[in-house]
Design a protein that fits this description.
The complex is a heterotrimer of chains A (245), B (297) and C (425).
Chain A: E1 36-39, E2 42-45, H1 46-59, E3 63-67, H2 69-72, H3 77-91, E4 97-98, E5 110-111, H4 122-128, E6 133-137, H5 141-154, E7 158-162, E8 173-175, H6 180-195, H7 205-228, E9 237-238
Parallel strand pairs in A: 3-4, 3-6, 6-7, 7-8
Antiparallel strand pairs in A: 1-2, 1-8, 5-9
Chain B: H1 18-26, H2 55-66, E1 73-77, H3 82-86, E2 93-95, H4 101-115, E3 122-128, H5 129-134, H6 137-145, E4 151-156, H7 191-197, E5 202-206, H8 211-227, E6 231-236, H9 250-260, E7 265-268, H10 270-296
Parallel strand pairs in B: 1-2, 1-3, 3-4, 4-6, 5-6
Antiparallel strand pairs in B: 5-7
Helix pairs in contact in B: 2-8, 4-6
Chain C: E1 10-11, E2 17-18, H1 32-35, E3 37-38, H2 41-47, E4 51-56, H3 57-66, E5 72-75, H4 82-93, E6 99-102, H5 106-119, E7 123-127, H6 129-139, E8 150-155, H7 171-174, E9 180-183, H8 187-201, E10 210-215, E11 223-228, E12 233-234, H9 268-287, H10 289-296, E13 300-303, E14 309-313, H11 316-330, E15 335-340, E16 342-344, H12 348-354, E17 360-362, H13 371-380, E18 387-389, H14 402-410, H15 413-419
Helix pairs in contact in C: 3-4, 3-8, 5-6, 8-10, 11-14
Classes of the chains: A alpha/beta (245), B alpha/beta (297), C alpha/beta (425).
Chain lengths: 245, 297, 425
């Protein structure tokens, strides 16, 4: 709520930050203006933000895009266009996962962490899929902020917020007023980084091994489903415990 | 416009969980669905964390089928069991403060009327007996006196179920419950009579014994609230936990209570009656015209 | 009163004016409301020419609402607020608002306003003292619901014993609610602040309710000079699809929407969600700071910066302090004054900066508990060596003589106690 005066600048780094870290805004991190971006709590030129995003999404483990309701629901022409731009962006990240946040209601009583991410317990999805870099796009700002703080508290995931409004202090990298044009520049930055020789995680030996193991696991699961037909497609992770008051 | 929010962005179909795809492809939006068709469409409520055998859940599930335009409906609830299931429904749900439903609904409905003068938006309060007759009493009564155009549905389990079984104003006299160690000292509140006094346009009392009736009552209540005035549905939705009704006997209990003191009853104003008749006639005329045009073609 | 509403004055047998009459027929002869045009906030605030008028605080608030493009106002009478919401009722009758009604009591009103805000319209209400306390359960839920709306607070004594007089103890209850809280000094502020509060509250990264408070009677019922921009311009309408949460209107995604998640289950995950949610409310408060600077000219105003003795005040105490500063100036003493416009977010940094040179700080207040002195002390803890004197204070309807402030400027409270004589009017 109030800002300390003489303390060193607060850094917004991948966690786990601890039990309950303060919000970055409360620590004096302010939102960027047009032409700027926010990287790890510091306002930097827009161009530097693209580079930081590209580096994180290409080099960290299990890069994932979390499209929110304002992307997955094609309620306007603009949204539909934006959605296709997001898919173009995703296509530049080898091994990328796309896990939607279709809405914000607390999902009872269990969630399938391979199928959805939920703002009431986002870390279940991040932990389960071992996600170490992610992009939130098309999530309403309140729910994005609530989620980003929890992710920073409990995981080592590098969070990117491509926000159509003012941006997010609790993301490691954030662009304000991120419209279609800026999304395309992120895509371009991903292409550029690869061109400059950055080897995407999915193409490294470690990445290849992990993705192959995961594919094998899924194949086995599908086989098991085909023979035993359980109610849920994947292993479930406990969400909110509905039996306790 | 509203149905456009239920379109998945091209390219994202394969990433959306199955239940959302079902909602889009087989949801009850923009068309009439009947209770008899249950199982053939994606219902507004499927998963929920309610107790096994809960009559309230059955009532809510069926009531939601009766909504004439779920794609243009907002539901409001308050603390109590009902909101556990309502917050899982595929309809926007407002969970406010204790007993504020009819206050919030008044502002919401008026706000929606300002923003969408050409599109009816249905507002439905669904809350418990404690939420409406006790803590929310003032807001409920005044919304009726002001003739606010929305529907109030009381899920009357005659007890504070969610807080662990305390007496409510809707509990029957003599019942021994928590906070009534010698039994309740006064009669069950006559909310039906109060609704009548306040000039509510359509009042219905029912037990969840007949699913089609539930859906029909809700449909009527919501339609009348659009044009004529406030409507009130009071439904017996027993709490099998606090009243120790064995799960397989929940419907037996509902039938017994219905026979004994909770018989189906409707009070409808002349204006509301005329309005319902008018829309029935319009519906028939429209069907006739469609049939005629088909025959002509 | 509006032209179209004037009726023949009737009195009852006691000679009191009877105000209950048939509903007036508003004549559509000149529909000024429909002719208003939308301008940018910057134009309305800073560029439009202003005309000086001598009006009461209630009338100033009315003139603000006339230009605020409000959709719905919900009223409930309580002294000294009633006057303002009556005036807003006349604005409704003249077509400036789209809906207006008198609610059942404050809990119902605060709830209904919350419903309207969720529907996406610009909403207004006002209250005072006991009414604020009655609505408090709902008011403290607005920030968590991320509902931009405006609450005007005309401070008065909180019962008991029952009294209607000015006293701003009620603001201490709002300080920790999460509501943006601005405290106006005079009639001019009561015109400017509501307009600016709407624009700040509705910024996407803020999306919070705002309260604009003034001290009852001193501001609401007394006249002061107010510079008004023309009445044929108004603020842009609320842009509800560019806010932090989706609207409850079934016209924006997600279709399956429970915005107010009932996350009350007992496990760490739900605790963490709630904790993060609360942090987000206060983060949003911090995000309001740049907009308060832009539109309101800063969270504080400083008179005589660098003075060794500073007065820190908000509301009507600022007016009295200005006069004390002037009188001290006549004696050749330079006294500084910090006017706190924004109580939430609190101007911690600004205050530290403004009081850097201070050796003595006094905090005059119109309440018994001295909530502002506590705020000031906590903000300046470890940041100043100045003596912080929590006072002078008056309450229960008393006015604050400038002599009282002057005594506190020069003496310790104990010395002041020995010399302050009861005022004979």
């Amino acid at each position: 709520m109030t800002t300390a005066t003489s303390s060193p600048r607060y850094q917004v780094l991948p966690g786990p930050e601890g039990l309950l870290p303060p919000s970055a805004a409360a620590m004096g991190v302010v939102l960027p203006q047009d032409g700027e971006g926010l990287v790890e709590g510091v306002i930097v030129p827009e161009a530097a933000t693209y580079k930081a995003i590209a580096k994180a999404m290409l080099t960290r483990r299990n890069p994932t895009i979390f499209p929110g309701p304002l992307v997955v629901w094609g309620w306007t022409k603009h949204t539909q266009e934006k959605a296709s731009v997001v898919l173009e962006l995703a296509a530049e990240i080898p091994g990328v996962k796309i896990i939607p946040m279709p809405d914000y209601r607390p999902i009872y009583p269990k969630i399938d962490p391979e199928a959805v991410i939920n703002p009431c317990h986002p870390n279940l999805t991040i932990w389960h899929n071992k996600i170490e870099a992610c992009i939130f796009v098309g999530v309403h700002c309140h729910f994005a902020s609530v989620t980003l703080k929890m992710v920073r508290a409990g995981t080592n995931c590098y969070t990117v917020a491509l926000c159509a409004e003012a941006g997010h202090e609790d993301a490691m990298a954030s662009l304000p007023h991120c419209d279609i044009e800026k999304l395309q520049r992120v895509t371009e930055a991903l292409r550029q980084a690869k061109k400059e020789g950055l080897v995407p995680w999915a193409l490294t030996p470690a990445g290849k091994r992990e993705l192959a193991a995961e594919a094998e696991q899924k194949r086995k699961q599908r086989k098991a489903i085909a023979t035993s037909a359980p109610t849920f497609a994947h292993e479930l992770v406990a969400g909110l415990d509905e039996n306790e008051e | 416009m509203s149905l456009d929010t239920l379109k998945i962005s091209p390219g994202f179909e394969s990433y959306m969980p199955k239940e959302y795809v079902d909602l889009v492809e087989r949801g009850p939006y923009g068309r009439d669905v009947k209770v008899s068709e249950m199982g053939t469409f994606k219902e507004i409520i499927e998963e929920h964390p309610m107790c096994a055998g809960c009559a309230m859940t059955l009532f809510i599930r069926t009531a939601l089928i009766g909504l004439p335009a779920p794609e243009h409906t907002v539901i409001l609830g308050t603390a109590g069991c009902g909101r556990l299931v309502l917050s899982q429904a595929s309809i926007p749900f407002i969970y406010g403060n204790y007993g504020d439903t009819n206050g919030v609904a008044s502002g919401l409905k008026r706000g929606l009327e300002i923003r969408f003068p050409n599109q009816t938006k249905d507002v439905v309060v669904m809350a418990g007996d404690g939420g409406l007759a006790d803590i929310g009493f003032s807001c409920v009564m005044h919304s009726w006196f002001r003739k606010e155009k929305f529907t109030t549905v009381m899920l009357d389990n005659e007890v504070y179920g969610n807080t662990g079984g305390q007496e409510s104003g809707m509990t029957n006299k003599g019942m021994v419950l928590k906070m009534a160690p010698f039994g309740k000292k006064f009669e069950k509140m006559d909310m039906i009579g109060l609704a009548k006094t306040a000039g509510v346009a359509y009042i219905a009392r029912l037990a969840p014994t007949n699913p089609t009736r539930i859906a029909n009552v809700i449909r009527k209540a919501v339609l009348i609230a659009r044009e004529v005035g406030p409507t009130y549905v009071q439904a017996y939705t027993s709490c099998n936990i606090e009243y120790a009704i064995p799960t397989p006997k929940v419907m037996d209990d509902a039938r017994e209570v219905e026979k004994d003191r909770y018989g189906f009853m409707e009070i409808i104003s002349d204006e509301a009656k005329a309005y319902l008749e008018r829309i029935e006639q319009e519906k028939k005329a429209k069907a006739k015209a469609v049939a005629a045009s088909k025959a002509g073609a | 009163m509006a032209e179209g509403l004037e009726t023949e004055v009737k009195t009852n047998p006691q000679g009191d004016v009877i105000t209950a009459t048939e509903a007036p027929k508003v004549q559509a002869k000149e529909n000024k409301a429909a002719k208003q045009r939308v301008v940018t906030p910057e134009h309305l605030f800073f560029e439009a020419p202003r005309t000086k008028t001598f009006i009461t605080g209630s009338e100033a608030a009315k003139e603000a609402i006339r230009r605020a493009n409000v959709d719905i106002a919900i009223s409930y009478p309580i002294t000294p607020q009633s006057e303002t919401m009556q005036q807003v009722g006349y604005l409704y009758a003249e077509g400036y608002l789209k809906d207006y009604y008198r609610g059942e009591e404050e809990y119902g009103v605060m709830s209904a306003i919350a419903g309207a805000s969720r529907a996406g319209v610009r909403a207004l209400t006002a209250t005072a003292g006991p009414g604020l306390m009655r609505g408090m359960e709902v008011i403290t839920s607005w920030p968590g619901g991320r509902m931009p709306l405006l609450l005007l607070v005309m401070c008065r004594v909180i019962n008991a014993p029952l009294a209607i007089q000015p006293d701003n103890v009620e603001l201490s209850y709002l300080l920790n609610s999460g509501v943006l809280l601005f405290h106006g000094e005079n009639q001019q502020d009561f015109f400017d602040f509501p307009l600016k509060a709407y624009m700040i509250a509705e910024k996407c990264e803020v999306t919070l309710p705002a309260a604009v408070a003034v001290d009852g009677f001193f501001v609401t019922h007394a006249r002061g000079w107010v510079e008004l921009p023309p009445d044929d311009i108004k603020l842009p309408p609320r842009d509800c699809y560019h806010e932090a949460v989706p609207m409850m209107d079934n016209e924006n995604p997600p279709a399956r929407l429970s915005r107010d998640a009932p996350i009350q289950k007992s496990n760490f995950i739900s605790y963490q969600m709630h904790a993060s949610w609360q942090q987000e409310i206060w983060a949003a408060q911090d995000r309001a700071r740049p907009w308060i600077k832009k539109y309101m000219g800063g969270l504080i105003e400083v008179v005589n910066p660098g003075a060794e003795t500073m007065i820190v005040a908000s509301g009507s105490a600022v007016s009295q302090s200005r006069e004390a500063v002037r009188q001290a100036g006549e004696k050749g003493d330079t006294i500084g004054l910090v006017k706190i416009r924004s109580l939430r977010p609190f101007p911690t940094q600004e205050l530290i900066e403004a009081c850097r040179h201070a050796k003595r700080i006094i905090v005059p207040e119109f309440n018994c508990i001295g909530w502002l002195a506590k705020e000031v002390r906590s903000a300046l803890y470890g940041q100043t060596k100045a003596e912080i004197v929590p006072g002078p204070r008056v309450f229960g309807g008393m006015s604050m003589p400038t002599e009282l402030i002057l005594e506190y400027l020069y003496k310790t409270p104990n010395e002041a106690r020995l010399t302050t004589k009861p005022l004979v009017l």
